[in-house]
Specification:
8 strands; binds phosphoenolpyruvate; 8-stranded parallel barrel; 42% helix; alpha/beta; 16% strand
Length: 249
């Protein structure tokens, strides 16, 4: 089955509302009409309303970069899934390595957030990936399999087939050091394999697996051409016109 490729920009903690508006106005004419891929801008919370408004009439969807796993209440500084849904998000990044490293997100927390995202009809972009030390120790496959399995615990096949898994080797994020096409394909293949073990091959073949880590206009086409790589999660390059070239790669 042919999977529609998906390219998502992770803006991280960049772009004030005014800057966000400018960036979207720059990117819209360059990639807003692309229909052969799903295109997502994952923007800071404060930028969501204006981003949703700005992409109306284009093929671009808006995502958040996080959510909290409770409905509402005394969780100062957190954001409820219903809030980002009502604001117009279709996607949400969950378990980005920066959240795991700086904000203590465990696999179990990632799973709670994934379940919550589904409750609110948000597509989770679930990030998994190893550090350089883990790669050198030879535990990438076990680690990524475990991260994927725990993230999707209690998620049934009908829901899982909508998920997006982003394989992001931590050593390649923001470093300019991209995994080779073969390294990225190998891990994305392992991810598809564990999905097949859990859900069966038919469902696994529907789930999109992205690669992320220093994707740019020069390497995107070759990465996205690998059999188990269904697009990319893009950090640094999503903040410039380059992102459109990645989308159109
Ligand atoms: C990311 O943070 O998801 C990412 C892939 O960043 P970069 O493209 O800058 O490596």
């Amino acid at each position: 089955m042919a999977r529609k490729k998906i390219v998502a920009g992770n803006w991280k903690m960049n772009m004030t509302p005014a800057q966000a508006k400018d960036l979207i106005e720059t990117l819209k004419p360059l990639c807003g009409a692309n229909t052969d891929k799903d295109v997502v801008f994952c923007v800071p919370f404060i930028d969501i309303p204006l981003a949703v408004e700005a992409v109306k009439g284009t093929n671009i969807k808006i995502g958040a970069q996080n959510l909290y796993f409770e409905e509402k209440g005394a969780y100062t500084g957190e954001i409820a899934p219903a809030m980002i849904k009502e604001a117009g998000c279709d996607y949400v990044i969950i378990g980005h390595s920066e959240r795991r490293a700086y904000f203590g997100e465990t696999n179990e927390i990632v799973n709670k957030k994934v379940l919550k995202a589904y409750e609110h009809d948000l597509v989770p972009i679930i990030c998994v990936g190893e550090t350089l030390e883990q790669r050198e120790q030879g535990i990438t496959e076990e680690l990524v399999r475990l991260q994927t399995k725990i993230a999707l615990k209690d998620v049934d096949a009908a829901k899982a087939e909508k998920a997006v898994i982003a394989y992001e080797p931590i050593w390649a994020i923001g470093t300019g050091k991209t995994a080779t096409n073969e390294q990225a394909q190998e891990v994305c293949g392992w991810i598809r394999n564990v999905l097949a073990q859990v859900y069966g091959q038919e469902t696994a073949d529907k789930i999109r697996v992205q690669y992320g880590g220093s994707v740019n206009a020069g390497n995107a086409a070759d990465l996205f051409a690998m059999p188990d790589i269904d697009g990319g999660l893009v950090g640094g390059a999503s903040l410039k016109a380059d992102f459109a070239a990645i989308v159109n790669a």
